[in-house]
Design a protein that fits this description.
The complex is a heterodimer of chains A (317) and B (426). Chain A has 2 domains: 158 residues, Rossmann fold; 151 residues, Rossmann fold (3-Layer(aba) Sandwich), CATH 3.40.50.1370. Helices cover 36% and strands 14% of the residues of chain A. In chain A, helix 4 links the parallel strand 3 and strand 4. Chain B has 426 residues and is an alpha/beta fold. Chain B is built from 14 helices and 19 strands. In chain B, strand 18 and strand 19 form a beta hairpin. In chain B, helix 2 runs parallel beside helix 3 and helix 4 crosses helix 7. Chain B is globular. Classes of the chains: A alpha/beta (317), B alpha/beta (426).
Chain lengths: 317, 426
């Protein structure tokens, strides 16, 4: 989508990983690598975004993602303002553009946006002034590009290359913006086999057209995998007719040591968090030697620093 | 007023006429074609050289937004828009506020419309009170007040027993029911066609099944009750096949599609443009191509604009929160012509789909140029090119998926009841 690239092919906004060139994904990962040691320094700051104003615009509540963006921005010496905008049903739409206009008038340089509607970040990006960048921090079921990127960063750190991997994404792909961003990133970076595993009620129509292989059992889907990504299962999924119960879900799709044994012995286990232990993942796996779930969180800061630095025009630490 | 329409290519599908000739209008009627009647002295001569003279268009779905939604559009603005689109008769769905569910409201609308320039307005009555899908409206009273048919518009009935009763009651009096097939529970929370594009964009889907499951129910009930059914705004390949089969079995059903769905598909959603948020949703290319073919082979009986002006603010929100619908009464003709050009369909057949055939579905005079009939005439330039912008549209609704796109074919004069209700400066 050209909306997020400048005419000379640089990153203008980060809205989705769908259609983003491989060179840009790699550039972000490389830049994140150069930021990895900032967190270890005595003064955990670099002056790249000094004087820049970054607004965390969260129309949907989030603690974890907002916090990592905030830390990332502060490590780049930016001024950060957090806005948690409760969406009141009658003025939702109006509020978005009004909020954006108001903050633009306060000389914002970047908006980090989370919204419950797919396409909300695109919508805002289309309306902001030319000097303002928009980073999508999650829009509906559509995209969560920085999460997708930090997952790629994690895979690269532990596996080195992408071209020889088999990656399985397990669970509620239908409602997951994380899964969509992961799929686009994995296919763009050249992973030859991306699998999704889940019951038919939790897989989107035509998901195979995104370049994935579809499996409905863990036994078949996990065999030979290098990377196993577990998705969060929201409790509300059990209220409708999508699933009968958390127990039955865990029985068939929860990641236990026994099921993990079907993957390659050196397979890593990932999860975007927050985890539902005993629903999609067994504690023994989550806390086990193959889990890289905590490193994912650490890398999230470096990756978000990289995205913000590249958008603001700078590059390295 | 006497009008001499000179030297135009007169295309009248009902009379199978396609020739360059003259049309003479007096006292609201077409008084002659070819040679002027004796003592005919025109007050106005319209030079139609190089233009097409055809029956005024009959649009089966134009939302005039009154009463209740005047912030979106007014009767004045939309009747002017319809005239600018060459439309001389239109059916107005009852999804106003309050809905057209009692005779007084229908009479008021007809009265207001009659006193304004523009097309003949034929209200479609609400099938159930407040369109709630529970209690039937007074269909006989509403018919006396001027309703031509009854519909739930975009609030499909949730209760099949109510639908069965409605059909039985309507069949008793031979009232026509216009139904847009949609299973409410299968469509719940959806905003886009449930397919590869919506999956990619993370937009909650409305499966094709939402239409076909409801359609199967309607067809079965229609067969049982003998009710006269018009199926509105079909959108899927499968539903067209089902209607084709039902017709082949002798069921007296008709159907229409919206002109937007002849040209657009789910692929047009890719940038989350809320102008592409339509009801029913834009479906796959396969569905769109099936619609294009079914219009050619006659399986679909009519094309309509499904004109739905909305306020700009209602589109200036993320896709899923935006009000669905497109303003389109001024694009019905050029979009029909575009389809005909692309499919190699003769002009006569294309015009039939937006004049004579819908006039029959609506059961009103018009849609033809028979001598002695109402002088409802559209005169257009088949080759005129223009660009769709808020300025080139008369409608108060600027919400069209075709914004800033070029169109070919533009109305020059619209004659309604023998009066020139619209003429373009060009």
């Amino acid at each position: 989508m050209n909306l997020q690239l400048t005419s000379d092919g640089r990153l203008r906004h980060l809205l989705t990983l769908d259609g983003l060139p491989r060179a840009i994904l790699t550039q972000i990962l490389d830049t994140a690598e150069s930021f990895m040691d900032v967190g270890e320094r005595e003064v955990k700051k670099v002056p790249l975004l000094r004087g820049k104003s970054i607004f965390n615009l969260f129309f949907e509540p989030s603690t974890r993602t907002r916090t990592t963006f905030e830390i990332a921005a502060k490590r780049l010496s930016a001024d950060v303002v957090n806005l948690n905008i409760a969406t009141s049903s009658q003025t939702k739409g109006e509020a978005i553009l009004d909020t954006v206009d108001n903050l633009s008038a306060m000389h914002a340089d970047m908006f980090i946006v989370r919204h419950s509607q797919s396409g909300a970040a695109h919508f805002i990006a289309r309306h902001v002034a030319p000097h303002i960048s928009v980073v999508n921090a999650g829009d509906g079921r559509h995209a969560h590009p920085t999460q997708g990127l930090l997952d790629m960063f994690t895979i690269r750190r532990f596996k080195g290359e992408f071209h020889n991997l088999t990656v399985a994404i397990v669970g509620d792909v239908l409602h997951s913006r994380v899964a969509r961003s992961q799929i686009h990133a994995l296919t763009t970076l050249g992973v030859p086999e991306v699998r999704v595993i889940g019951p038919k009620t939790l897989l989107p129509t035509g998901v195979e057209q995104m370049g994935v292989k579809v499996f409905h059992t863990m036994e078949a889907g996990l065999a030979g995998c290098d990377v196993v990504i577990m998705l969060r299962l929201q409790n509300e999924r059990m209220k409708g007719a999508l699933l009968p119960s958390a127990q039955e879900y865990f029985k068939f799709f929860g990641l236990t040591p026994e099921k993990l044994a079907l993957a390659k012995p050196d397979a890593i286990v990932m999860h975007p968090g927050p985890m539902n232990r005993g629903v999609e993942i067994d504690s023994e796996v989550a806390d086990g030697p193959q889990s890289v779930i905590l490193p994912q969180v650490t890398y999230g800061i470096a990756v978000r620093m990289a995205v913000m630095a590249l958008l603001a025009g700078g590059a390295t630490a | 007023m006497k009008i001499h329409i000179k030297n135009g290519r007169v295309i009248d599908p009902m009379n199978a006429r396609d020739e360059v000739t003259d049309v003479f209008v007096a006292a609201g009627k077409i008084v002659a074609i070819g040679r002027a009647p004796a003592d005919f002295h025109a007050n106005r001569t319209l030079d139609a050289s190089g233009l097409v003279v055809c029956p005024g268009l009959v649009d089966l779905s134009v939302r005039l937004r009154e009463p209740g939604f005047e912030y979106r559009a007014t009767l004045e603005s939309e009747m002017l828009a319809a005239a600018a689109g060459g439309v001389t008769s239109l059916a107005c769905p009852p999804d106003t506020d309050p809905p057209l569910d009692e005779p007084g409201l229908v009479e008021m609308l007809k009265f207001r419309a009659k006193n304004l320039p523009g097309p003949r307005v034929y209200p479609i009555g609400a099938l159930t009170q407040k369109l709630e899908g529970k209690m039937l409206t007074e269909m006989a009273e509403l018919t006396e007040a001027g309703c031509r048919a009854f519909t739930q518009a975009d609030a499909p009935p949730t209760d099949t027993q109510v639908l069965l009763s409605a059909m039985k009651y309507a069949a008793t009096f031979d009232f026509s029911l216009w139904l847009r097939p949609q299973d409410v529970s299968l469509a719940r929370d959806g905003v886009a066609h449930d397919g590869a594009v919506a999956s990619r964009l993370g937009l909650p889907g409305i499966p094709a099944l939402a239409e076909t499951v409801a359609l199967a129910t309607i067809l079965l009930l229609a067969r049982e009750t003998g009710a006269r059914i018009h199926l509105a705004r079909l959108s899927t390949r499968e539903s067209i096949a089902m209607v084709r089969a039902a017709k082949a079995q002798g069921l007296a059903v008709t159907c229409d599609v919206a002109s937007t769905h002849v040209h657009l598909s789910e692929n047009d959603l890719i940038s989350f443009d809320s102008h592409m948020h339509l009801v029913p949703p834009l479906r796959s290319l396969r569905d769109r191509d099936a619609i294009r073919e079914a219009l050619r082979d006659g399986s679909i009986d009519a094309l309509c604009s499904d004109h739905t002006p909305v306020d700009e603010d209602e589109k200036q929100v993320p896709f899923g929160e935006s009000a669905p619908g497109a303003s389109g009464v001024e694009l019905l003709l050029p979009l029909t012509l575009q389809w005909a050009r692309e499919m190699g369909v003769p002009l006569m057949q294309a015009i039939d789909l937006i004049s004579w055939k819908p006039a029959q579905i609506l059961g009103v005079p018009g849609g033809n140029l028979t001598v002695g009939s109402f002088a409802d005439i559209c005169i257009f330039d088949e080759t005129a090119e223009w660009v769709v912008t808020p300025k080139t549209l008369a409608s108060q609704g600027d919400n069209t998926p075709f914004l800033n796109q070029p169109m070919q074919g533009r109305v020059r004069y619209t004659v309604i009841d023998g009066h020139i209700d619209f003429e373009s400066p060009h």
